[in-house]
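**Discrete fold encoding**
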Amino acid sequence: MQKYLQIAMNEQGTKEVKGQKDNPKIVQYFADVGHSWVKDDETAWCAAFVGSCLEKAGLTSTRALNARSYLKWGRKISKPVVGCVVIFKRGNSSWQGHVAFYMGETDTHIKVLGGNQGNTVKISSYKRKDLLGFRLPKTKLNSKTNIASLVGVGGIAVSQFETIEKTINKVTDITSKGGDIADQVGGIFNSITWPMVAIIGIIAVFGFIIMERNKKVNEHGL
């Protein structure tokens, strides 16, 4: 389970206080996303709740109080997964909306865990026809992670990565300067041993796996 979703689940039952008093937990949601000027629990707080959960989990939220700001947050996914951010339209306004965390669905409704749902943090159902989009944080394998995970695979050492990097950089430099690359590259490959060829092959395969994995993440959020 995503850390931010666990945080959100632990907040279930938090609700507005009737009368002149305000729930300090809801007021804190606003402060968590940079809006400490809000001192009441009557101001629409669904986006503040989502942002607070994300921020507490170490992720950067939109830090905005309008639900539709999340249509530009993270990355879009076509198939929802539990915990992804869901944005709905609300009323007939082009700017009003609701944002929460996906929990499941039926043929006609989408179940979400969110704040300001009946003035409470709870799981509620919203009409599928009001859906605007599903979003997930931008968390892909980056180059540093890829390289670190390759160290030790097939006996690959950091020093060998440095040699490969220098070779790639040299080919790139020659290509950018033009000239007879067939003559100039010859000297480069004379320094490459068969073990190095094997290493490069492993990196190529690993790179393909990463590419396919990231493609799957984009499409399905898995």
